[in-house]
Input
Amino acid sequence: MSMMVKDKKKAHAQQIKDRFISIFIGIFALVWLFPIVWTLWSSLRPYSEIRAGGVFSPPQELGLFNYTNAIERMDLPRYFWNTAIITIPAVFLILLFGSLIAFVVTRYSFKFNVAMLLLFTAGNLLPAQLVFIPVFKMYLAIGDAVGDRRFLYDSPIGVILIHVAFQMGFATFVLSSYMKTIPKEISESALVDGASVFTHFFKVMLPLLRPPLASLAVLMTTWIYNDFFWALVLMSTDNKRPITSALGRLQGEFVTDYNLLAAGAMIAAIPTLIVFFILRKQFVSGLTLGSTKG
Amino acid sequence: MKTAATDTKTVRRRRFFSSRDKITLGFFIGIPTFLHIALVWFPAVATIYLSFTYWTGIRIEDIQWAGLANYENIFFNTPIFYDALRVNVIWLLWFFFIATPLGVLLAYQIDREIRGHKFYQSAYYLPVVLSLAVTGIIWNFLLRPDGFVNGLLGLPIAEAISFFGDDNYNIWVIMIMASWRHIGYIMLLYLAGLKAIDASLREAAALDGATEWQTFMKVILPAMRPVNIIILVITIIESLRAFDGLHHLRRSRWTADSRCIGL
Output
């Protein structure tokens, strides 16, 4: 009896503690969101008002005028298109190559299985700054060899390839851990039925990989969408660069209308925000896949 | 365990591949591996090689072996290098001892499903999905001379603190900006790991009378080893590639203090 009372007391104390923790984390969370909310609020006001009355001046004009203006100046369709033709093929290739390597490494045994996995995973972790100068030179050299200097350099193909080469490692890592959890019997029976390697992969394994592929697709899309290092280094024509670079267009030569810039930033963030809120669950599960079941 | 062992054995048993299968396997492995090595490992090795040479960067024939001269130059004739190194060390310490543990703590609390945990999870992860370019703009709103913080301090533009230009502030400001994203990322990674941990482990620890802290240190942390390694690597990388955020702020003013090795 006394045990139960003690337990109850303990549980009660824990409850109070939890409430405190919750409030504390909650306040912290609001602080976390504040910069975004503040930028959103500012994007609804004209910059001239702030310059005249300071940041805390009560708003006299509120509206979406900064957004319409930004959309006009950013040449949005072009930049969204630029982003799409980089992101979509890159994500597709990353998933395809990642699952191919994971498939071979986990389903067939070679001497160099572990070495392969290490090669790809470690490659993913190399800092981009370590490789970009030779990549840039190689792109130019290959372009010269083909006869078109802009075959890889300053072209979406080059940016796609470098993303694929880098992120493939992450995809391989996640997918191979997931594949290890798929029972081997499935492969065995496919082989007993005389399936070729090709059928084994495309008809048997690929459908089973749907959950990790979905999560990876979400992650990779946001990563590549948000990248601007490679686009900056490997593309010289502003018109070909992805949406993150279009923000530069909103900056004046001498005076920048910051509230216009805020609207632009929000517009550039909208696709990732939509993806984030719709597929929130995939974000969490995507990162966990295989990380603890190794 | 035993079945797993026999399974691998059966798979290891020699198979007869048709020649078509061999070709398919070759393609499956060959194309991605070629791409990866050509665009990641080859350039990485090339950069290391180039670091031992003199080169104007134009014609390949001009490359001349320099031995350790470049390194000597960096270590002894470039005082800025030590500034950069110092900044990188501060970053590493900050991320290692403050930002990453904070992310882990958050994950731990959110995993206990305290009230509002779903909202918290989204709130903390939100900055991670924003691009660095957007992050730079957002923080500029708080910190520029006529921004929120200076407004809060009641400073007119003429006396405003230049958070990005002043060497006393800029490194900390950028560190906070980077942590804003880093903590959420670590939180999510760790949360994912925690969710995958067997609940019975905790129950067993509680039955044995372990305190919360003991349970975390002795049971959960060791069980999370793979995630811990990933987080360690990410922390180190994150502190080495302080590039993107800095690049976007450069417009404000470029000072020697905020340079880092990555550049």
Summary: The CA atoms of residues 163 and 169 of chain B lie 5 Å apart. The first strand of chain B starts at residue 53 and ends at 54. The two ends of chain B are 49 Å apart (CA to CA). The domain at 80-258 of chain B is CATH 1.10.3720.10 (MetI-like fold).
